[in-house]
Specification:
- By secondary structure, the chain is mainly beta.
- 2% of the residues lie in helices and 52% in strands.
- Strands 11-38-37-36 form a four-stranded antiparallel beta sheet, with no helix packed on it. A four-stranded antiparallel beta sheet has the order 12-13-14-15, with no helix packed on it.
- A hairpin with a 4-residue loop joins strand 18 and strand 19.
- The protein is flat, with a radius of gyration of 32 Å.
- It starts with 6 loop residues before the first helix and ends with a strand.
Length: 687
């Protein structure tokens, strides 16, 4: 920045413009003012004089407003002039802080040029995040209605509205809260040691129509349809509230520990049995669980969670017909105390009581969703957000989750115990393959497939696997001994019968049937639909990755540049600057992205190259769904994402990075480490 020694010199060096002359960015300066090109502002004589002898940053008058001194000149604090001034966090360029600094887990922090403040739209949370909530200790009760939530934390009642938790008066000071039910946003019932209390949005009042009780459960289907099951002097009692008064109803045959009311009916459970109120009479219903730990529902759907003969399980049905999901076998849970909550019957979450692992349900399958920072005690959705009460507070679910999935992979029956995930590839999030292999030349190989519900082993042989790829009509795997395997429609992997002179290291398949293979000793093999064409490159060239997009777009990455197949031979195209390239991804007729060592990335769009920098690592794998949704995985486990502007890191990482595949709503990362490291990032909204 240039300094003005004296005002006279400034006036002489600057240009005093008439109203017909623009100032830098197009601003038109009035006669008698001076144009400062650096700031794009027209300065009055007062602005030229008021900061003489003052330090940078001191305030100064700009007409009736306040400006700031800079180089002994008084500038109006103008958002958009390219200079960070006053309270501005940024102006043109991104802020110096990052999404990480602001508590996010991923994303690139931009600048909102309209207000010169940090733009958080590209910052993302991943997984379950603790949220600020008054008081300390466990949160044991959650309830919600109309987008407003209520919680019990120790002796304090909390309310969630307008995006934050606030303390409200407690139902009864120091009393244990057994149950809480929100009939409406400002109509909440709580059963405590001191009786039944009702909250009207401002205060809690004890309902004197209900006698003092030993214990109880309250539930309902709205303000005029509330049910109370309680024990009074060791006698079981049941009552119904119609909006005006309570009246007795039939008492279930056993003690009620759980209750839920909805369009499907009124259901209660003692744990060992479930009953439904029908025609004023309680009837025991058949259900698949041996013990019920939690009872809830949505509309006409009833949800039971607890224990089956196989272990932890969830039953979803209409009260007569049930679909049972064995969470123990599918997800490795060993406890039966399962708590369920969510937004709807096909958008559920479950936790094992006191444990941190969260699983989610999309109407067809349960998948690992992430982990809580403390043991979970209760789940419920408040508006669009799912919250978990934990042993140390409240956590909320994010739009993205990152989960290790290694224990969902089937165990290999082969002799090698040290299988590692070498490659991951898929057609969609419900049609995905992972190739595992031992580290020695005589180790075993295994291919597992995910069909949207479960993982199955499709190949289990005493043969090391090195890479996978495919197209909508075929899937391929390469082996260390030079064998190319193709998956038939019957899910069987069979050799193609082609032979190659060296072990195969990488493979890429295009939708039109074009294949390219990378072998040891600088061999490249291209299949153009009619025949294989093989070439051993010069000893000074070291290809590390291949990409087939079509017959006219076949590439290989060499450490100093990009190799392009012209139909007869390989042509080297140098990168725009020195570096060490490692991996490539692209779209037919579209952009190409090359990543490499030292956090380097090169983007080719419409024939022009640009260079970008990623978080420091040696990046070995890159894959995307579009030019604005690309993931890269580094050798040290660093994960980076490109959303169209800059590369940004994810806070999560693997021990060792090997391979990445990106789909529309899921991304899989494979780590070449033992025990096998495979992780899935699920995104319910695009980045």
């Amino acid at each position: 920045m240039q300094f003005a020694a004296i005002i006279g010199a400034l006036v002489i060096s600057a240009c005093v413009h008439t109203a017909a002359v623009p100032c830098g960015d197009g601003t038109v300066c009035a006669p008698g003012t001076v144009c400062n090109l650096e700031h794009g502002q027209c300065l009055t004589p007062d602005q030229l004089e008021s900061c003489v002898g003052k330090a940078d940053g001191e305030l100064c008058p700009v007409g009736t407003d306040t400006g700031i001194c800079d180089d002994e000149l008084c500038f109006a604090v103008a958002c958009g002039d390219g200079v960070v001034q006053g309270i501005e966090q940024c102006d043109g360029a991104p802020p110096l802080t990052s999404c990480f600094d602001l508590g996010y887990d991923a994303g690139f922090l931009g600048c909102n040029d309209s207000v010169c403040a940090a733009d958080l739209r590209s910052c993302h949370h991943i997984g379950w995040k603790p949220v600020a909530a008054p008081s300390t200790g466990s949160v044991t009760r959650l309830a919600s209605a109309g987008g407003v939530g209520y919680a019990v934390r120790g002796e304090l009642a909390l309310r969630f509205r307008a995006g934050s938790w606030e303390p409200i008066s407690s139902p009864s000071s120091g009393a244990l809260v057994f149950s809480i039910y929100a009939a409406a946003a400002d109509d909440v019932w709580a059963v405590t040691e001191d009786g039944l209390f009702r909250f009207d949005g401002t205060t809690w009042n004890r309902d004197t129509q209900v006698p003092l009780l030993d214990r109880g459960v309250v539930t309902g289907a709205g303000p005029n349809d509330v049910y109370l099951f309680m024990t009074v002097n060791s006698s079981r009692t049941a009552m119904h509230f119609d909006g005006t008064a309570w009246s007795p109803i039939a008492v279930p045959s056993t003690f009620v520990g759980l209750a839920w009311a909805g369009p499907a009916g009124i259901f209660v459970s003692s744990g060992s049995s479930v009953e439904k109120l029908s025609g004023g009479v309680w009837q025991s219903i058949a259900q698949p669980l041996t013990w019920v730990h939690h009872l809830t529902g949505f509309g006409t759907t009833v949800i039971l969670s607890g224990t089956s003969d196989a272990g932890a399980a969830v039953a979803i049905g209409d009260g007569t017909t049930w679909s049972t999901y064995d969470i123990t076998n599918e997800l490795g849970w060993t406890t039966g105390a399962v708590l369920v909550g969510g937004r709807s019957a096909d958008d559920l979450y479950a936790i094992a009581q006191g444990e941190s692992q969260v699983v989610s349900f999309d109407g067809a399958r349960w998948l690992r969703d992430g982990t809580l920072s403390a043991g979970g005690l209760v789940l419920d959705a408040i508006g669009p957000t799912v919250f978990a009460g934990t042993s140390d507070g409240i956590a909320r679910e994010s739009a993205a989750s990152f989960a290790e999935i290694t224990d969902t992979l089937p165990e290999s029956s082969s002799m090698a115990p040290d299988l590692l995930p070498f490659s991951v590839w898929g057609r969609s999030c419900d049609d995905l393959f992972i190739a595992l292999s031992g580290v020695s030349t005589t180790s075993a190989g295994q291919i597992v497939h995910f069909d949207g519900s479960s993982w199955t082993t499709e190949l289990d042989v005493l043969m090391p696997l090195t890479a996978m790829s495919g197209s909508p009509n075929a899937a391929y795997a390469a082996t260390y001994d030079g064998t190319l395997l193709r998956r038939s429609s019957s899910t069987q992997w069979i050799p193609t019968g082609d032979s190659f002179p060296t072990p195969l290291r990488d493979i890429s398949a295009a939708d039109d049937g074009t294949l390219v293979l990378l072998g040891d000793d600088r061999w490249l093999h291209v299949f153009d639909g009619g025949a294989w064409r093989s070439e051993q490159l010069a000893s000074t060239i070291y290809p590390s990755d291949v990409l087939a997009l079509s017959r006219d777009e076949v590439y290989a990455v060499e450490r100093s540049g990009l190799l392009r197949w012209d139909g007869a031979s390989w042509v080297l195209e140098p990168l725009p600057e020195a570096g060490t390239a490692r991996a490539i991804w692209g779209l037919p007729g579209g952009p190409l992205i090359v990543v490499g060592a030292n956090g380097q990335a090169w983007h080719r769009v419409q024939g022009s190259w640009t260079s970008k920098t990623m978080p420091y690592d040696e990046f070995l794998s890159v894959h995307g769904t579009s030019a604005e949704d690309v993931f890269a995985l580094g050798a040290n486990g660093t994960i980076a994402h490109f959303a169209g502007e800059e590369w940004a890191p994810l806070r999560q990482r693997l021990t060792v990075g090997r391979s990445v595949w990106n789909g529309a709503s899921c991304t899989y990362f494979a780590g070449n480490s033992f025990p096998p490291s495979v992780a899935r990032l699920r995104r319910s909204e695009p980045w």
